[in-house]
Amino acid sequence: MKSFRLLILAALFIPIFACNAQTENTANPSTSTDKVEAYYFHFNSRCVTCLAVESEAKTNIESLYGGKVSFQAINLDDESSKAIAEELKVSGQSLLIVKGATKINITNEGFMYARTNPEKFKSIIKNKVDGLLEL
Amino acid sequence: MDFFNGILENSSMPWLSALVLGLMTAISPCPLATNITAVGFISKDIDDRKRVFLNGVLYTLGRAITYTAIAFILYLGVDQFKFSGFFQRYGEKIIGPVLLIIGLFMLDVIKIKFPGMERLTTKMQSKTTWGKFDAVLLGMVFAMAFCPYSGVLYFGMLIPLTVASASGLYLPIVFALATGIPVILFAWLLAYSIGSIGGVYNKVKYFEIWFRRFISILFIIVGIYYIIRVYV
């Protein structure tokens, strides 16, 4: 059942965002496998939408899950971000939800809805995080 | 933007998605600054409307070359992590200084002659028309200036559509067209309105010299804007 869900989830994304929403198969020793974590990666210069994506994601995750799901904003222009960016294969601005080796990329959804339709963005976050929590 | 989002959500036609993504890129605030500079640059031959239109098309061609080249390299399977990371990280950081330097050259503040730079600058003071290649070059450079928002639109949404199959490689051209259309339109409108005001030929010529100086200053201002955005 678990792998089925994973497959469905992957199948939903692969045709639309082929490169973005790949499920990583390699095991990841440094992140714990049972915790769901959200990451927002950005650069020094930030646009209005970028800021909205971060703040909406942060607020939604905190209000929906409290401490159960962590949220971290990481500046890719900081040297210290290099390790985690390489580990998660992040090349630019991204909003990722990670659980162990499973990685869901909702950057595009964030940029489309964070400003214009925050409710929809919230439901997407909830949908994805719930899916991961059940894994 | 709501309107564009609606089209994107419901579009099953890749070319329409590419078109909408291009328009969204063109009107988002950060690329808008380069677009204003481009409008100025394209309409520099203000007394010749056909030439302004041609410049606009060439500028768009330049953008198409860059967008297609990046997509093609990614299609060939280069490490996306490093390659697209490079553009998103440095694109916006390079454009500020580049605009500033071009502006200073055009104003003749800096007088060193670089072989490449000469094309863009020496003809500024003389009234001969600029080389066609300049507009293409400007389009190529400006396309590389990915802002945070346009970076996501291009690398996050357009590239996945494009690299999915070889037949998708025309999509960056549609995208480039859409980013160029507003620029062509405004440049042409500008040329049309100003060109019809200055009835006397000599007045237009006089105006043209000042207009070109104004464009140089525009390059410098927009360049400083980007430098402040990224570095301060």
Q: What do these coordinates show?
A:
The complex is a heterodimer of chains A (135) and B (232). Chain A is built from five helices and four strands, in the order αβαβαββαα. Chain A has 135 residues and is of the alpha+beta class. In chain A, α2 packs across α4 (107-113), α2 (48-65) packs across α5 (118-134) and α4 (107-113) packs antiparallel against α5. Residues 1-31 of chain A have low confidence and may be disordered. Chain B has 232 residues and is an all-alpha fold. Chain B has ten helices and no strands. Chain B has helices spanning 2-10, 14-27, 29-42, 49-75, 80-106, 115-121, 132-144, 148-163, 171-197, 201-231. Chain B starts with a helix and ends with a helix. Chain A binds chain B through residues 15-20, 42-50, 76-77, 86, 89-93, 107-108, 111-113, 115-117, and chain B through 1-2, 5, 8-9, 28-30, 80-85, 88-89, 92, 147-149, 151-153, 155-157, 159-160, 163-164, 229-230.
Sketch the topology of chain B as an H/E string, one letter per element. HHHHHHHHHH
Q: Describe the oligomeric state of these chains in a short phrase.
A: heterodimer
CATH superfamily of chain A: Glutaredoxin
Shape category of chain A = globular
Number of domains of chain A: 1
Number of strands of chain B: 0
Q: How are the secondary structure elements laid out?
A:
The complex is a heterodimer of chains A (135) and B (232).
Chain A: H1 2-13, E1 36-42, H2 48-65, E2 69-75, H3 82-87, E3 94-99, E4 102-105, H4 107-113, H5 118-134
Parallel strand pairs in A: 1-2
Antiparallel strand pairs in A: 1-3, 3-4
Helix pairs in contact in A: 2-4, 2-5, 4-5
Chain B: H1 2-10, H2 14-27, H3 29-42, H4 49-75, H5 80-106, H6 115-121, H7 132-144, H8 148-163, H9 171-197, H10 201-231
Structural features:
heterodimer, A: 135 residues, alpha+beta, Glutaredoxin, four-stranded mixed β-sheet, 5 helices, 18% strand, globular, B: 232 residues, mainly alpha, 10 helices, 0% strand
